[in-house]
Specification:
Layout lengths: L2 E3 L8 E3 H11 L9 H29 L3 H12 L4 E3 H8 L3 H13 L3 E5 L7 E5 L1 H21 L6 H31 L6
Antiparallel strand pairs: 1-2, 3-5, 4-5
Helix pairs in contact: 2-6, 3-6
Keywords: DNA-binding
InterPro entries: HTH_MarR-typ, MarR/SlyA-like, WH-like_DNA-bd_sf, WH_DNA-bd_sf
Organism: Micromonospora avicenniae
């Protein structure tokens, strides 16, 4: 049986995958927050698909172009931007990354000569990230092979009906996230609710 570590009251305590499913779906949270068996199966399948697809694309890019999937995402966003540069905040919003993740990624890419950080002329506190000639060469060399791999691993695996369903499901979840974002920000700003 595959064992998955979970957080519990006992340090180092683990549950088998079947027991984790039962606890996650049955006992974690109130009755309205439980996932039924089908929901749990779909949620796990989504994560497995995402993780395995990301791993395969990353390995392909590393092997054939010498860049990682995160490198490719940053370079593609900058290559498509006006003047092939974006403020750090704009790049974070485009990629939907945390500030620290982007800072570490840009530092590594800058060391390899793929991007440079310039002080923003309009705002001395903000940095602008710009793609270099080497970065542009890398992303152009990788783009066609990357698109072919995405087609082979993702699009060719799905029927037109499945693609339509996937597109609709993705749009519905993104809309839910957009509508929930203001209330989540208010909850974080007000801090934890302590019992009276």
């Amino acid at each position: 049986m595959r064992v998955i570590p979970v957080i519990s009251g006992r340090p180092g305590h683990t549950l088998g995958a079947g027991r984790l499913n039962a606890n996650y779906a049955g006992r974690m949270g109130g009755s309205g927050n439980r996932l039924d068996g089908r929901e749990y199966q779909v949620w796990r399948a989504f994560h497995r698909m995402h993780d395995q697809l990301s791993l395969a694309l990353n390995q392909h890019l590393q092997r054939d172009a010498g860049i990682s999937e995160p490198d490719f995402q940053v370079l593609a966003a900058l290559a498509e931007a006006p003047r092939q540069a974006l403020r750090s905040r704009e790049l974070r919003e485009e990629l939907q990354w945390e500030k620290s993740r982007l800072a570490h990624q840009i530092r590594r890419m800058e060391q390899r000569g793929l991007v440079v950080r310039d002080e923003c002329l309009e705002d001395g506190r903000a940095a602008t990230v710009r793609i270099t000639d080497a970065g542009l060469t890398s992303v152009r060399a990788a783009a066609q092979a990357h698109a072919a791999m995405v087609r082979e691993l993702f699009f060719d695996a799905l029927t037109p009906t499945q693609l339509d369903a996937f597109d609709e499901a993705g749009a519905a979840v993104i809309e839910r996230l957009r509508s929930a974002a203001p209330s989540r920000r208010r909850d974080r700003a007000s801090g934890p609710k302590l019992p009276a």
